[in-house]
Amino acid sequence: MLPANNPVPAPVVSLTSTARSLWIIFFIFFSLQQTVAQDTANVNNGNPAIPVLSTSFPEYPYNKKRVKWVAGANIAGYGAVMAGLYAAWYSNYPQGKFHFTNDLKQWKQIDKVGHVFSAYAGGKASMEMWRWTGIDRKKRIWIGGLSGAAYLTVIETLDGFSSQWGWSWGDFGANMLGSGMLIAQELAWDEQRIQLKFSAHVKSYKDPVLAARTRELFGSGTAERILKDYNGQTYWLSVGLKTLIPESRLPAWLQVSVGTGAEGMFGARENIAISDETGLVEFDRRDIQRYRQWYLAPDIDLTKIKTNKKGVRVLLSMLNVFKFPTPALEYGKGRFRWRWMMY
């Protein structure tokens, strides 16, 4: 979240954007580690007579030890992340009574789309961890699927006690939407036919004033810029063409994707910053247009690539939350533009 009075020099970018990324990375890493370690053997014990399988996941037999392991890893891993975040971030800023903030008009709502994606992607990784335990299908879907919104809501609650931020109903609603999209599709189809994906690139600015402003807002390292700079982020909805046209001979992995992003944002609501201490304008680039972008592009569903390696199957599934770089048609500033490579 960003404070309601946008022109505050620091902190400017929401902790949530960084925190949600950290716990998603944790879940993805754990999912890969566990499943690859257990299942790197061929699906059919190396029997060449049995056809290669697609990347759809099998249902594992119930394993009590795995249940305890996954539950313990969730508690310990997320607890460690939260303790680290509190020590590194929240403890450095004033705390107060629980309060709310309305940040729906900030960052062209790209941060809200980021919350939807984060809850969806984190829940997806968690759901596959619980699948590995062999628990009941519906329990796995609800526990794993809701974990995305649940963990982000804990961070949202901490924001509510921070004087710099506040509880955001917009963020909470976006978290629930992401988890709801995941759960509904899994319950209805046992697969994600409409997939949420993410892509990003590091924006560079030749103007020294803009370069300094973006360093202040978004940091200087590549990873930090990818996580924080909304100007370089794009979120996508991808659906298989075979799903849309079942009778066609189109390959199952071919998708069409609609994306959205925004540019020209050097502040939460407008491109101006006023010092809290002096009341003087420190940055004013209201001459730069803030605008939304829309994209139409082909995509690849990595989960439809056939393999007989369970470890590879898991890896492809985890990577499938990222949009494959392809050409794209962009609409922004009232005109169309062709992008030879969009990522």
Overview of this protein structure:
With 343 residues, the protein is an alpha+beta fold. It has one domain (15-342). The chain has helices at residues 15-39, 64-88, 110-133, 137-160, 169-189, 208-218, 222-228, 241-244, 310-319; strands spanning 194-200, 233-240, 254-263, 272-274, 281-284, 291-300, 326-332, 335-342. It has a six-stranded antiparallel β-sheet. A two-stranded antiparallel ribbon has the order 4-5. Helix 1 (15-39) runs antiparallel to helix 2, helix 1 runs antiparallel to helix 4 and helix 3 packs across helix 4 (137-160). The longest helix has 25 residues, at 15-39. The protein is globular. Mean pLDDT is 81; it is low at 1-12 and 27-55.
Largest sheet: 6 strands, antiparallel
Strand order across the largest sheet: 1-2-3-6-7-8
The portion of residues forming beta strands comes to 15-25%
- From the alpha-carbon coordinates, what is the Rg to the nearest angstrom? 21 Å
- Count of discrete alpha- or pi-helical segments spanning 4 or more residues: 9
Number of domains in the coordinates? Answer: 1
Low-confidence stretches: 1-12, 27-55
